[in-house]
Fold this sequence. Notes:
Blueprint: H1 5-13, E1 23-25, E2 37-41, H2 42-48, H3 51-55, E3 58-60, E4 63-70, E5 73-77, E6 80-84, E7 88-92, E8 97-99, E9 108-114, E10 137-139, H4 142-158, H5 165-185, H6 190-194, H7 198-214, H8 221-228, H9 232-243, H10 247-265, H11 270-276, H12 282-293, H13 297-304
Parallel strand pairs: 1-3
Antiparallel strand pairs: 2-9, 3-8, 4-7, 4-9, 5-6, 5-8, 7-10
Helix pairs in contact: 4-5, 7-8, 7-9, 8-9, 10-12, 10-13, 11-12
Amino acid sequence: xxxxxxxxxxxxxxxxxxxxxxxxxxxxxxSRYALGVEVFTLADFRRRVSDAHLRTPQRVDFHLLIYFAxxxxxHTIDFEPVPCYPGxxxxxxxxxxxxxxxxxxxxxGWIVMSGPQFLRETLTVDGSGAIFDLPSRYHLRGRDRExxxxxxxxxxxxxxxxxxxxxxxxxxxxxxxxxFARLRLCGLTVDVASGASGANAELFRRFRRDVxxxxxxxxxxxxxxxxxxxxEKTLGxxxxxxxxxxxxAYLTRRVILEAKRLLANTSLPISAIAERLGYxxxxxxxxxxxxxxxxxxxxxxxxxx
Length: 305
């Protein structure tokens, strides 16, 4: 039997309601499932959950691939709607918030999920933290699509081999690493899609990793330039080539995204969220949030509830 594992179990345990309340979903498959990767079909997942489950936003603490083989829907990632149709592949990382489309009764495909611990070595398969350098959405065509679907199907079959779980885990780890490497070669990563290449692409990846670590400590571009041992101008060119935005704009967008996650997923006061995000004055945070999100933080939280 196909195991939808922890995703379905946690939804049911959480007493999900048809509301905008976000629930945390962890990688904790059934005790009888001893592997670090789960692969199952979207059709099986769809049969096992209600529309209320699908409408409930979920904050995941694992890496998640969702491939759409047929049908159309709109998946929500970090509060942004993402149109999905045959050939669409979504890549989510720990900490991101997603919501399935309740009107998804006609689509099918695959879900691949793995806990961060299982991927600790896989993440550096090509020396650059492979999965974190992938875009959140692909539209696969031709040979790329065929190879990705074949890879996922093989993992699905191998996860159901009767044998030593340690050996099967090792096999799945290699197959998952190969899948990430293939996605890197699809030519759709942020740096390739935007025109950044070579030194600029590598500098942008360094900047992006530094931002994830130091976001609450500093929002100043010059501090990140110092971390990378380059000038602000050089860093700015790399970020602009990779994203089409300035380094400052990139930092601001990342702050606002984290603010939305905290507003939606915690009961922290606005002042505490501002402090956690590195603002000495809550009023400055409120001003920037209002400018970027088009509403005050409190209004954003109330809209979700």
